[in-house]
Design a protein that fits this description.
The chain is about 40% helix and about 15% strand. The protein has about 250 residues and is α/β, with parallel strands linked by helices. It has a single domain, classed as Alpha-Beta Barrel (TIM Barrel), CATH 3.20.20. It has an eight-stranded parallel β-sheet with strand order 7-6-5-4-3-2-1-8. Strand 2, helix 2 and strand 3 form a beta-alpha-beta unit. Helix 1 packs parallel to helix 2, helix 1 packs parallel to helix 11 and helix 7 packs parallel to helix 8.
Length: about 250
């Protein structure tokens, strides 16, 4: 049985002082919630401060991106070995990285391999645009993202990879996919594509999240679906009460 997983992607929000205040309130609010893996992913500059505040708590810490090289002349980048000292997870291939910073499936693949090599658990995002969705190309796009992004990945432990289905047209728009529709995409497209690479046993154990305008008032609808194992939460994770309710909905 797959353990529910809820991750909060802070994106480019909260200064270090704001992060400290937020986490000091969040930890006691969600510490005792059992039966769900809880992770927060703040900006790079907050990782050290948040790491210290989470010490001894059951809340995981993740980064929002990384480079695939361990070191080098890559001004402004952060390497997997740097992150491995501070956190356990890293978001890769988010639609904003793909859209604004021209990241490709090949880039995502290199980052996945680099993350796994240092013990980080990648949270790999896949999803289609509104135009692709309306043109009936959802399956084609997702299958290509998995085939190209997950190629040559060695995965002895299925729990060391998290997949997040984030229909791009539902991110930050307030327009979420239906719970049944998202579940059907995961069950009929995403898991079979993963199975074609890793086999049925691994595909059945990899957790697949939904990400796209997940809020306290709709989270339960999504999490009740059999193939949705939790959520990658954006704006709603920036409020302690809202994020707490979303985590509770995952139990």
């Amino acid at each position: 049985m797959r353990v529910p997983f809820v991750a909060g992607n802070w994106k480019m929000y909260k200064t270090v002082s704001e992060a400290r205040t937020f986490v000091a309130e969040l930890v006691p609010a969600i510490r005792e919630i059992q039966g769900v893996d809880k992770v927060i992913c703040p900006p790079f500059v907050n990782l050290m401060a948040v790491n210290a505040l989470l010490e001894g708590s059951p809340i995981g810490l993740g980064a929002q991106n990384m480079h695939w090289e361990e070191q080098g002349a890559y001004t402004g980048e952060v390497s997997p070995v740097m992150l491995a000292e501070l956190c356990e997870y890293v978001i890769l291939g988010h639609s904003e990285r793909r859209g604004y910073f021209c990241e490709t499936d090949a880039n995502v693949n290199k980052k996945m391999r680099a993350a796994l090599a240092v013990g980080l658990t990648p949270i790999v995002c896949i999803g289609e645009t509104l135009e692709e969705n309306e043109a009936g190309k959802t399956a084609e796009v997702l299958e290509a993202q998995i085939a190209n992004g997950f190629v040559d990945i060695s995965l002895p432990d299925p729990e060391k990879l998290i997949v997040a289905y984030e229909p791009i047209w539902a991110i930050g728009t307030g327009k979420a996919a239906t719970a049944e529709g998202a579940n059907a995409i995961i069950a009929d497209v995403i898991r079979p594509a993963i199975e074609s690479l890793f086999g049925a046993a691994v595909a059945s154990r990899i957790r697949v999240l939904y990400g796209g305008s997940v809020k306290a008032n709709n989270a339960r609808e999504f999490f009740e679906q059999p193939d949705i194992d939790g959520g990658l939460v954006g704006g709603a994770c920036l409020k302690v009460d809202e994020f707490t309710k979303i985590i509770q909905a995952a139990i």
